[in-house]
Amino acid sequence: MTVYLVGAGPGDPGLLTVRGAELLARADVVVHDRLADARLLDLARSSARLVDVGKSPGGPVDQDAINEVLVTEGRTGAVVVRLKGGDPFVFGRGGEEAAALQAAGVDFEVVPGITSAVAVPAYAGVPVTHRGRATSFTVVTGHSRHAVDRETNWEALAAAGGTIVVLMGVAHRASIAARLIDGGLDPATPVVAVHWGTRPEQKSVRGRLDELATMAMEPPATIVVGSVAGLDLAWYESRPLFGRRIVVTRARDQASELSRRLHDLGARVIEVPTIRISAPHDGGAGLERAARALPTYRWVVFTSANAVGALLDRVPDRRAFRDTSIAAVGPATAAALAARGLVADLVPARPQADGLLEVFPAPPSATSRRVLFPRAAEGRDVLVEGLRRAGWEVDLVEAYRTVRLTADEETRKEVAGADAVCFTSSSTVTGFVEACGADTCPPVVVCIGPVTESSARNAGLPITRVAGSPSVVGLVSALVAVLPSSP
Ligand code: SAH
């Protein structure tokens, strides 16, 4: 029974530690705050229980109640991850949680996180120490009146001459600036305040210490005071798609690569799920039978990674494929096979049903002519008919169902407010229109190629640009060309 106090980092989900990711993937229970990034929570298994202990807007955080939850969950013997922003022991009340666990005799482990005190300035191009400018930095809270007025010795900080990083200081920034100036800090000392650092919403404002009180800013922000704040090694906010909100549809193989590239260029990616894969109508009975009879088939034909997974989940021993050849419609399906330890015998150059028919061999006269074809309930019949015409005996088995999804109100709002949408195939157009409706379409529409373009046009969507080359890279370049500057 261990409770893991895990630092989630400052916002960018890529700034979680390897240890943190590993524990999230193992967790039975994840206790998180209200604003925890959904992409971090996605790292937990779907069976993990998510407990939101974030304060409801306006209400105070009841730390005792959170401690109680951790002790109770910890005692059950489950793997409990307490996910906390930044580093758990930097103004995160992680110390109090650890003390409560210790007092209750529950084992705990602290997994440090990247603190916003260092990472947020870094994403604004400000190093907290710099040769010739600062030999130290102090992280200080500006949260409560009491702390600002009585607990913190601002005069000593002013005299120390290092960088001062203020967390939770937006509300009391006027008093903080006044105390530092009274303590002898030059009123012209550079200041930068960074709102929502490390996220696509990041916004930094720069000024002087004597302007801090009137600089426009909103919490959460990290305020840096000192000579280093005069440096501007900007890299994040100057990315080509920084701050742009871009819609992509999810479920197809390319979606994640596209999302990753857009994220790396600074965009906020809004992924709209358009389909869900669910169990076949017969609950898998047909697949079970087919799996048992596998050695009686001469070929198994796969046209999707989903079918690969569905059948192979029921074939524990790969030797069942000893006398059976395997065809894959294209590279993605072949890759899914390879991930399961099977090499496809046949992959056509043209990754389509008729491409496969062209290269599929004629049936043998002596051995089995049986072909097993596990596929989606709603698959097309081109391949089945073609193989039968060629003389094969095809057993069609339903491996899974694709259920079309409708986006919820919140997602539709987000989509409608986005800057652009990208389509990587006709099916992403159909999926988008069915999930969100054509009327939520963002103002800029970019398509991967002419076929996708005509599908989008037929669906009544306005086309802004078609990729110069029909690839994810081409699509991203087209997007950068039509959305040139930051908002
Ligand atoms: N344990 C956290 C800090 C918790 S206190 C850590 O180590 O980062 C919360 C304060 O941290 C906020 O009020 C703000 O001052 C700062 N902060 C956290 N995330 C931030 C972000 N993404 N951008 C700017 N400031 C942030």
Task: Throw out a few tags for this protein.
Methyltransferase, Cobalt-precorrin-4 Transmethylase, Domain 2; binds S-adenosyl-L-homocysteine; Rossmann fold; 4 domains; five-stranded mixed β-sheet; 33% helix; 18 helices; Cobalt-precorrin-4 Transmethylase, domain 1; single chain; five-stranded parallel β-sheet; alpha/beta; 487 residues
What does this entry look like structurally?
By secondary structure, the chain is α/β, with parallel strands linked by helices. It folds into four domains: 2-114, Tetrapyrrole methylase, N-terminal domain (Cobalt-precorrin-4 Transmethylase, domain 1); 118-230, Methyltransferase, Cobalt-precorrin-4 Transmethylase, Domain 2 (2-Layer Sandwich), CATH 3.30.950.10; 245-274 and 405-482, Rossmann fold, CATH 3.40.50.10090; 278-403, Rossmann fold, CATH 3.40.50. The chain is 33% helix and 21% strand. The protein is built from 18 helices and 20 strands. It has helices spanning 18-26, 38-41, 63-75, 94-103, 116-123, 145-151, 154-160, 173-182, 253-264, 285-292, 305-312, 331-339, 353-359, 382-389, 409-416, 426-436, 450-458, 472-482, and strands at residues 2-7, 29-32, 49-52, 80-84, 107-111, 137-141, 163-167, 190-195, 203-208, 221-225, 245-250, 268-273, 275-278, 299-302, 325-328, 370-376, 393-404, 420-423, 444-447, 465-466. It has a five-stranded parallel beta sheet with strand order 3-2-4-1-5, sandwiched between helices. The chain has a five-stranded mixed beta sheet with strand order 6-7-10-8-9, with helices on one face. A five-stranded parallel beta sheet has the order 12-11-18-19-20, with helices on both faces. Helix 3 (63-75) packs across helix 4 (94-103). The chain binds S-adenosyl-L-homocysteine. S-adenosyl-L-homocysteine (SAH) binds at residues 10-11, 85-87, 90-92, 115-117, 120, 167-168, 194, 196-199, 219-222.
